[in-house]
Amino acid sequence: MAKRLDPSWVVLDSIENEQHDRCVDVFLRPDGSFGFEAFRRDAEDAGAWTPVSYFSGLRHATRAATLEEAARRIAWLGQVLRPEA
To answer: Taking the model in full, what pTM does it have?
Structure first.
């Protein structure tokens, strides 16, 4: 599991951009709240996913609300989730 994600959190979605160098993980915490974190992967990091934001501290009541907030905050994700936009 990537840094900045607690091992007790269950990753439900891991969405990558077309270049496969950016990723957003949506996760469920043991308390029932949802969250997300954004990552990048660069050759100089040996392909490891590195967190690029501090979104994992945000809490949402539903998976849908989490995805909506992630798409609002991360431009490329909004294009992936709503390609007609």
So the answer is: 0.88
**Long-range contacts formed by 25-33: CB under 8 A, 24+ apart:** 26/63, 26/66, 26/67, 26/70, 27/56, 28/63, 29/59, 33/59, 33/60, 33/61
With contact defined as beta carbons under 8 Å apart, do 63 and 10 qualify? no
Q: Are strands 22-28 and 10-16 parallel, antiparallel or unpaired?
A: antiparallel
| pLDDT over 90, % of the chain | 71
Confidence of residue 45 (pLDDT cuts 50, 70, 90): confident
- What is the residue type of 52? V
Element of type H or E holding 32:
none
